[in-house]
Amino acid sequence: MADRRPHIAVVGSGIAGLRAADALLKREVDARIVVFGDEPHRTYNRPGLTKKRYPLSDALESTIAEDVRVKGAENDAVTWRLGTGVRSADLSGRTLRLSTGETFEYDALVIAAGVRPRTAFGDGGECALHTHRTLRGLGDARYVHQRLQASEKVTITGAGFVACELASLAKEYGCEVLMLEALRRGPFESLLGERLATALGRRLVQHGITFLTGDSARELLCAAEPSHAEPPPDRSLSDQSLSDRSLFIEAIGSVPNVEWLDGNGLDLSDGVRVDAYMRVSPWDNVFAAGDVARYPDPWTAGSLTRREFWKNAIDTGDLAGRSLASSLGYGSVTSPIGYFPSMSTEVLGLRIQIAGDPRASDAMEVVCGDPDEPEQGVLVAYLREGTAVGAAYLDKGARYNSAYIKLLRSLRER
Description:
This protein is an alpha/beta fold and about 425 residues long. The protein has 10 helices and 25 strands. Strand 1, helix 1 and strand 2 form a beta-alpha-beta unit.
């Protein structure tokens, strides 16, 4: 007998897609929920792929997969179509064309397709000296951890979160690490500003990392040529082709996965534009969430923002699911997006916590500590017209934790 319930398609099996599906289930929406994912894995903690050293093992990928498992991903109340990508969408016809050649007709759609790593060379780029890789999925993680376990030389381009976490991880594995940042003077400069970025750059060098910026970095970037020499992610490290070039990891940002939405009249200039309830105008049955969604910034009136933080994906996924449920008559959504930006990482033993929106500031004020000695603890406030709009706390301990919490409260209350 045919299933006459509404069909809800969730494109993307990451945390935003999972949270959207969970929100629908919590509202007891009587529908068939189908989650499509390019990868063969259910939802896992992507940020966790760069945060832990693993022992040498033949079962490395399953070990990593177990370690980054996400609670709720085992849910079978939804239909999982894993290893099945969506190639195009006809929003007016409510139809998806799948990588399998099938079509899927939906009644409502959640776009949670996420992002992919930006590369300098594009698909198929390679050079004679290096094996070029990015790190986004479990297959990438297994490959990169295998190479790092061999304690070989690794070159990392970029100085953002993924780049710095990989450099820290590589040093734990005993690798010789070269970092190249051609555009900025230090890690997280676009968020934290020049002074903290420069101090963090010095700290990388103090821990044995060769960190080059500007022209010095550009001189060592590769000139790529089209090649099919790069092994697939599941190739064994024993393959000779892996040992004749050193590892070169590109961590230079990301690109929203929106090409499959072309031709539908959407604003795809930087992800998918949505309203404060995650609705994709003008479609009343289409919503977007996570890294791919660009929404009205609750912190800066009149502007839009797209954030690639784990908590943002959770919050926007939940809101998209609740908004969709409301559109089908299951409850109401009274509160628009009010996401409070916050993230944390650890690099070479230094804890880095960032909250609010430092990029919107016009001045920085030191609350505690010395910005030139972050390992001794430093707390800074980022101000716009004299009002705090962001904060950063760097420390190897918890010297100024109470002051940081106090500053967070003031940010939330603004």
